[in-house]
Predict the structure of Peptidyl-tRNA hydrolase.
Amino acid sequence: MDAPWLVVGLGNPGPKYAGHRHNIGAMVVAELARQASATLKQHKAAQAWAAEVRLGTGAGGVPGPRGVIAQPMTYMNVSGGPVSGLAKFYKVPAEQVVVVHDELDIEPGQVRLKQGGGEGGHNGLRSISQSLGTRDYLRVRLGIGRPPGRQDPADYVLSDFPARDKVETEILIADGVDAVVDLVTQGLLDAQQRWHSR
C-alpha cells in the first residue's frame, strides 16, 4: 500500500503558546483537522497529536490522497523525534513529509514552498533534519516578516499575532491549508507556480 503524506504543523504545546507567531504551522494543521472533521489524538508511536485524513479532493470530487496530519507534543526545538517517529510508523519517505512553519525571511502573509535546503536558523527544522537524516522533506513556509526596530527575533516569534491583524492571520492560515493541499495533489512545481506568482 502506498505511504500516506505526513503533514506536520510546527509550534510549541500548551495554551500559553497557542496564539504565537511561532505556532502558525500548528494552527494550519488544526484547520486541516477541522475541515476534515477529524480529531487530533495522541499517537501510540510518537509524541504527537495526529489524525488520518484525506487531503483535498481530486478530479470529479474524488477524495484526495491519504494523509496523516500532526502536531508534535514536544517543544519546537525537539520536533524531530515526533516527526521521525510518525514517518517510521507510517513508512513515509522524506519526500512525502510536509513541514508547515513560520518564516521570518518572508513578508507577512506570503506563502512559499520548497524541498530541502537550509534551516535558516529555525530550530524546529534543524531538529527534523537531524532526526530524519536528510533535509529533503517539503516545507510550506508561512511569512511572518522580521520584527520591527530592534526587537529580538526570539521575542517576536514567541509573541501573539496582534489583534489588529486577526483577519490577515486567518487568511494566512487558510492559505497554508490550501498550499498543503496543492502540494500533495498537484506536486511541488505546479504548487510553487501558483503560490510564488501571487
In short: The longest helix spans residues 166-186.
